[in-house]
Design goal:
- By secondary structure, the chain is an alpha/beta fold.
- It has one domain (2-335): Adenylosuccinate Synthetase, subunit A, domain 1 (Adenylosuccinate Synthetase, Chain A, domain 1).
- It has helices spanning 16-27, 78-88, 105-113, 115-121, 128-136, 156-166, 197-203, 236-241, 262-272, 300-313; strands spanning 2-8, 31-34, 43-47, 50-54, 67-70, 75-76, 94-97, 101-102, 153-154, 169-173, 213-219, 223-224, 256-257, 276-280, 317-321, 329-331.
- A 10-stranded mixed beta sheet has the order 9-7-5-2-10-1-11-14-15-16, with helices on both faces. The protein has a two-stranded antiparallel ribbon with strand order 3-4. A two-stranded parallel ribbon has the order 6-8.
- Helix 3 (105-113) crosses helix 5 (128-136).
- The two termini are 18 Å apart.
- The structure holds inosinic acid and magnesium ion.
- Inosinic acid binds next to helix 5.
Length: 336
């Protein structure tokens, strides 16, 4: 039996979706449950030549034998959920905790229309900040109050506990990244909740003693969307010249790009209780590593980068992503 949490170590968009999908195919979890803020997060998963972007459904949906859940800490936008359920064909195996907070049109209007959230903080405009604010005020609807969600309702903690008792694997999928945690990030330029591993456990109703592994995903060249400090940021001129051009999955804004941040990696690994680090975008450190699936075939430059990252993080690098497709990965977990 094993319960694994996957979270982002930098500012989000580290490639968690791809790591979750890989682990799902390999470890065959009975349940993949999503924690985190809500539909402000966009996860990208590429299987073969098909690319999917998800905002509500767990990115592990590509592994077809898992039950998919959304934990009670998460905000659900019923419109976004319906769209994804319809387009991804996951009906029958997706469930929503009955206590999830609900995002209404009013929350979206308040998010997009607020100078503070939309302009100063650079929010995604998905309604999450105002919805969490109403939830704290105890005036927000819950999933059980929304008739269209009736068919999806579940007590997610009970479902997870039952699988863990049977000896199944469970994956808890985090969203966003450490740097935009309400508690530990670059406040006030943060999202509306903590994003660390402890929060992801709480979002899914899984007690800390039940967690076996915490995978923290770091990007070789971190990115940030929206406003806020970014100490290793480089100019777009430089990142464009390096061939690093990324756009947000939810907002389509151009992502700011920076260099590896050793201090942030260490602090983030500490607070997340990292047991296994993952590094994505190693093909940006050395283009020759694109698509490599065997550690021995990585270049010296890439291996040196990983060694340094391990020293910085204070934990072994167990997963190395060498391209966007789900099978472009080196998985060293069994060797550690
Ligand atoms: P909000 O979460 O929409 O309120 O946005 C607050 C800040 O967090 C903004 O800077 C967003 O760009 C950022 N943010 C929220 N969700 C994500 C995410 O999933 N990836 C990256 N940045 C995010
Ligand atoms: Mg994203």
């Amino acid at each position: 039996m094993s319960c694994t949490i996957i979270v982002g170590g930098f500012f989000g968009d580290e490639g968690k979706g791809k790591i979750v999908a890989h682990i799902a195919f390999k470890d065959k979890p009975a349940i993949i449950s999503r924690g985190g803020v809500g539909p402000n997060a966009g996860h990208t998963v590429q299987v073969g030549d098909r690319e999917y972007g998800v905002r509500m459904v767990p990115s592990g949906f590509v592994y077809k034998d898992a039950k998919l859940c959304i934990g009670s800490g998460v905000l659900v936008d019923p419109r976004v959920l319906k769209f994804e359920v319809d387009t991804l064909g996951v009906k029958g195996r997706i469930f929503v905790d009955k206590r999830c907070g609900i995002i209404t049109e009013d929350h979206i209007a308040r998010d997009k229309g607020s100078d503070h959230l939309a302009k100063k903080i650079g929010s995604t405009g998905s309604g999450c900040g105002p919805a969490n604010s109403d939830r704290v005020m105890r005036i927000s609807p819950q999933a059980k109050d929304v008739p269209e969600l009736a068919e999806y309702l579940l007590d997610v903690p009970l479902a997870i506990d039952a699988e863990l008792k049977k000896g199944s694997n469970v994956l808890l999928e985090g969203t966003q990244g450490f740097g935009i945690s309400l508690y530990y990030g670059t406040y006030p330029f943060v999202t509306s909740k903590d994003t660390s591993a402890s929060q992801i456990a709480a979002d899914n109703g899984v007690g800390p003693t039940k967690i076996d592994d915490v995978v923290v995903v770091f990007k070789a060249y971190p990115t940030r969307v929206g406003e806020g400090p970014f100490s290793t940021e480089m100019t777009f001129e430089k990142s464009d010249a390096m061939g690093i051009k990324e756009f947000g999955t939810v907002t389509h804004r151009k992502r700011r790009v920076g260099g590896w941040d050793a201090d942030m990696a260490r602090y983030s690994a500490m607070i997340n209780g990292c047991t296994q680090a993952a590094i994505t975008g190693i093909d940006r450190v050395d283009k020759d590593c694109f698509g490599v699936r065997d550690f021995a075939k990585l270049s010296k430059k890439a291996k040196d980068f990983i060694k340094q990252a391990e020293d910085d993080i204070g934990c072994s690098v167990a997963l190395i992503s060498t391209g966007p497709e789900v099978t472009q990965i080196i998985d060293l977990r069994d060797e550690l």
